[in-house]
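Progress report, Aim 2. The chain analyzed during this reporting quarter is listed below.
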Amino acid sequence: MTPSSASAVRRSPAGSASALPSPAPSSATEDEIQKAIQRARSGRTTLLITHRLSQIRWADVILVMHKGTVVAQGTHDVLLHHSDLYRRIFARYDITLPPLERAGG
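Predicted structure tokens for the chain:
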């Protein structure tokens, strides 16, 4: 790392972006990734691109994209109640989903 890039890292920018690898890491690695993300996002705006359920759930705002377009946004709980696409992520796991609430109802 060059001196200029090292100092840029030390400055801790107000925002950061992360893309997590898609291969499934071990449980120990997953825990370390989760801890590192929590430390890195403290006091910052963080854009996390992931399909990993363990990282999705704690986000303040989740954007659901379909074919390059944002089709829904909200917290994990809101999206479980209102977004069919978001619910599909969880449908393959053995969890009980809340009833889907349609707009206006």
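The radius of gyration is 17 Å. Residues 27-41 form the longest helix (15 residues). These observations will guide the mutagenesis work planned for the next reporting period.
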